[in-house]
């Protein structure tokens, strides 16, 4: 069975009546959202806060009630994917380019549950290039300043030019060899003018659901 599907569907068992739910982005949480759509059709009352336009579109198609983030003070539970997870539950996110909204939603959440397949579980972050959202104005300068932190940033491209985030910004995929100190690196990056947000999520995830060959394992 598809490992992402296993993890994504398992996460739906943590959803309870009346919750305000952060709805993550990507091909793993896709399965959670599909399950959630079924639960809503069966009468479950929840409200969802999407972390991207793509997720909002999917949720609306499935009949999941949507709230704007400005309408909530707190989110009960957010379920989202990740590109890498280390043993301290520090994450690299943003492979799909939704990192800013994902971090904003995660920051309002009482609980952040991450769904991954076992290929995402690593001992040290950094093999996956770290996505950093930057303002288009002067992005070349921002990129040079980021490179001084020991990586090689590459502008993410789409079919007809730069990839544009839901917030109208660019993504620099930053190739480090290893990220030994994710919290420090996140602080250093967010101090650089032009950086909007980084894909490093530190001290945010509470639980990781991992889909593997032998089924699902839950780390908390
Ligand atoms: C999008 C993300 C995704 O959660 C991350 O890229 C994992 O995606 P997938 O579940 O498709 O592997 O951070 O910005």
TrEMBL record:
Catalytic residue list: 102 (proton acceptor)
EC number(s) from the headed UniProt entry: 5.3.1.6
Domain of life: Bacteria
Enzyme class: isomerase
InterPro entries per UniProt: NagB/RpiA_transferase-like, Ribose-5P_isomerase, Ribose5P_isomerase_typA_subgr, Ribose5P_isomerase_type_A
Protein keywords: Isomerase
Pathway: Carbohydrate degradation; pentose phosphate pathway; D-ribose 5-phosphate from D-ribulose 5-phosphate (non-oxidative stage): step 1/1
A GO molecular function held by the record: isomerase activity
Reactions listed under catalytic activity: aldehydo-D-ribose 5-phosphate = D-ribulose 5-phosphate
HAMAP family: Rib_5P_isom_A (MF_00170)
PANTHER family listed in its UniProt record: RIBOSE-5-PHOSPHATE ISOMERASE 3, CHLOROPLASTIC-RELATED (PTHR43748:SF3)
Family: Belongs to the ribose 5-phosphate isomerase family.
Subunit structure of this chain's protein: Homodimer.
Function: Catalyzes the reversible conversion of ribose-5-phosphate to ribulose 5-phosphate.
Name of the molecule in the record: Ribose-5-phosphate isomerase A
């Amino acid at each position: 069975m598809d490992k992402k599907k296993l993890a994504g569907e398992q996460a739906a068992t943590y959803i309870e009546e009346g919750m305000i739910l952060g709805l993550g982005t990507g091909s793993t949480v896709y399965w959670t959202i599909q399950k959630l759509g079924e639960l809503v059709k069966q009468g479950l009352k929840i409200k969802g806060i999407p972390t991207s336009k793509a997720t909002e579109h999917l949720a609306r198609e499935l009949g999941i009630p949507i709230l704007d983030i400005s309408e909530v003070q707190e989110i009960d539970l957010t379920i989202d994917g990740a590109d890498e997870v280390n043993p301290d539950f520090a994450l690299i996110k943003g492979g799909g380019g939704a990192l800013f909204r994902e971090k904003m939603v995660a920051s309002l959440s009482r609980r952040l549950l991450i769904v991954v397949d076992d290929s995402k579980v690593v001992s040290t972050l950094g093999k996956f290039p770290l996505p950093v959202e930057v303002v288009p104005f002067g992005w070349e300068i921002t990129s040079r300043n980021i490179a001084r932190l020991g990586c090689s940033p590459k502008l993410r491209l789409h079919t007809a030019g730069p990839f544009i985030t839901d917030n109208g910004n660019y993504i620099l995929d930053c190739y480090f060899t290893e990220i030994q100190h994710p919290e420090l690196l996140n602080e250093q990056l967010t101090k650089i003018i032009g950086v909007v947000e980084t894909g490093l999520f530190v001290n945010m995830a509470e639980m990781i659901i991992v889909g593997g060959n032998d089924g699902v394992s839950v780390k908390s």
